[in-house]
């Protein structure tokens, strides 16, 4: 659906050119929710705005629904943009227009007759849950409701792609969840491909199928959300995930590990393991196998079970003690059963 190849974006700046995007290759497949995450200044807005050519890239190719956007005439570009809806962090509603008229704006600009506009917008206001507020003005509705108007307006032209530029950053956590649920519903029921940018892993966790991590204008990591959560490779990814799955163990847990290590029986070994898994695996039977078949002692020190969309996702810290070779066999067994295992050395 979207193919970006070799995208660079260089802005002129008072202290010389700013390289906001430094060679981005990205492929978004039809029907997916694709998340782009990064810290402030990483290049997220520049990237999302390249997709509908609100920003013309300095170099590179932008293919959307089979069309090379950089090669279109102004008239063709306007037509192509109708297939790409966009939602903004600050909603961008016109204060002098009602909810209905804000949602209808793209159709009015395209010259659609009023009766047809009504036929298109009424069901959309129903979908976003605002049919009863159609005659209100933006100042008379909440932030979450304003974003619902923004989504209805973005869907008015029946787009194939919806771009979301930090659509929930100005909203509280509960409203964020309901807006993300709505975007997911639009994706599933209308088959609209969604590309969203955010600085919050919580947003990625709730809605995205795949995620790309962007840092200093480059994509540094990309994959299905579950894989990136269970096997983050880059420090930036680990720090972004940290708000959901703490990457460092609390000091109290490390103190317990030291005291367990000090109490090992003569000749026994001990190893702190960080385990994570996703999907239908469950820890309990796997851990009982380690205890029963390999004769290991396992102390569960820390852990959490969460959900990424509909998949269970767990992370656990355990201290395994016993025969050194058997600890090695246990790690092999865990990995063979789809558990991601990290060994952690505890010093001091
Ligand atoms: N119009 C512009 N002119 C000059 N520099 C710009 C312009 N727009 C963005 N930049 C610079 O390009 C880099 C990337 O900015 P961009 O807005 O794409 O990042 P971002 O990840 O969306 O950040 P934020 O989350 O803070 O919005 C930053 O260094 C920014 O200062």
From TrEMBL:
<dbReference type="GO" id="GO:0016887">
    <property type="term" value="F:ATP hydrolysis activity"/>
</dbReference>
<dbReference type="Pfam" id="PF09383">
    <property type="entry name" value="NIL"/>
</dbReference>
<keyword id="KW-0547">Nucleotide-binding</keyword>
<dbReference type="InterPro" id="IPR027417">
    <property type="entry name" value="P-loop_NTPase"/>
</dbReference>
<keyword id="KW-0813">Transport</keyword>
<dbReference type="InterPro" id="IPR050086">
    <property type="entry name" value="MetN_ABC_transporter-like"/>
</dbReference>
<dbReference type="GO" id="GO:0005524">
    <property type="term" value="F:ATP binding"/>
</dbReference>
<dbReference type="Pfam" id="PF00005">
    <property type="entry name" value="ABC_tran"/>
</dbReference>
<dbReference type="InterPro" id="IPR003439">
    <property type="entry name" value="ABC_transporter-like_ATP-bd"/>
</dbReference>
<keyword id="KW-1003">Cell membrane</keyword>
<keyword id="KW-0067">ATP-binding</keyword>
<dbReference type="GO" id="GO:0006865">
    <property type="term" value="P:amino acid transport"/>
</dbReference>
<keyword id="KW-1278">Translocase</keyword>
<keyword id="KW-0472">Membrane</keyword>
<dbReference type="GO" id="GO:0005886">
    <property type="term" value="C:plasma membrane"/>
</dbReference>
<keyword id="KW-0029">Amino-acid transport</keyword>
<dbReference type="InterPro" id="IPR045865">
    <property type="entry name" value="ACT-like_dom_sf"/>
</dbReference>
<dbReference type="InterPro" id="IPR017871">
    <property type="entry name" value="ABC_transporter-like_CS"/>
</dbReference>
<dbReference type="InterPro" id="IPR018449">
    <property type="entry name" value="NIL_domain"/>
</dbReference>
<comment type="function">
    <text>Part of the ABC transporter FtsEX involved in cellular division. Important for assembly or stability of the septal ring.</text>
</comment>
<dbReference type="InterPro" id="IPR003593">
    <property type="entry name" value="AAA+_ATPase"/>
</dbReference>
<dbReference type="InterPro" id="IPR041701">
    <property type="entry name" value="MetN_ABC"/>
</dbReference>
<comment type="similarity">
    <text>Belongs to the ABC transporter superfamily.</text>
</comment>
<feature type="domain" description="ABC transporter">
    <location>
        <begin position="2"/>
        <end position="241"/>
    </location>
</feature>
<protein>
    <recommendedName>
        <fullName>Cell division ATP-binding protein FtsE</fullName>
    </recommendedName>
</protein>
């Amino acid at each position: 659906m979207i193919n970006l190849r070799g995208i660079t974006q260089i802005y002129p700046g008072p202290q010389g050119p700013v390289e906001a995007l430094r060679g981005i290759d990205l492929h978004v497949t039809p029907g997916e929710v694709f998340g782009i995450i990064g810290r402030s200044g990483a290049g997220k807005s520049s990237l999302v705005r390249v997709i509908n050519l609100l920003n013309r890239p300095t170099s590179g190719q932008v293919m959307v629904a089979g069309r090379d956007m950089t090669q279109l005439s102004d008239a063709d570009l306007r037509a192509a943009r109708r297939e790409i809806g966009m939602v903004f962090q600050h909603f961008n509603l016109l204060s002098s227009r009602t909810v209905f008229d804000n949602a209808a704006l793209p159709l009015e600009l395209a010259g659609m007759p009023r009766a047809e506009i009504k036929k298109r917008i009424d069901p959309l206001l129903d979908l976003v849950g605002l049919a009863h507020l159609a005659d209100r003005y933006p100042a008379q509705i909440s932030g979450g409701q304003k974003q619902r108007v923004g989504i209805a307006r973005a869907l008015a032209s029946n787009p194939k792609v919806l771009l979301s530029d930090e659509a929930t950053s100005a909203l509280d956590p509960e409203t964020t969840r309901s807006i993300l649920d709505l975007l997911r519903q639009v994706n599933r029921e209308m088959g609209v491909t969604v590309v969203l940018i955010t600085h919050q892993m919580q947003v990625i966790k709730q809605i995205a199928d795949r995620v790309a991590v962007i840092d200093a204008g480059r994509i540094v990591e990309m994959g299905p959300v579950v894989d990136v959560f269970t096997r983050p490779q880059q420090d930036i990814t680990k720090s972004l995930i940290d708000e959901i799955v703490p990457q460092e163990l609390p000091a109290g847990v490390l103190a317990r590990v030291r005291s367990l290590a000090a109490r090992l029986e003569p000749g026994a070994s001990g190893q702190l393991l960080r385990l994570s898994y996703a999907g239908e695996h469950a820890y309990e039977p796997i851990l009982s196998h380690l205890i029963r078949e390999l004769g290991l002692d396992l102390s569960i020190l820390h852990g959490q079970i969460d959900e990424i969309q509909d998949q269970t996702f767990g992370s656990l810290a355990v201290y395994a003690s016993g025969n050194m070779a058997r600890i090695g066999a246990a790690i092999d067994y865990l990995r063979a059963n789809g558990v991601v295992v990290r060994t952690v050395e505890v010093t001091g």
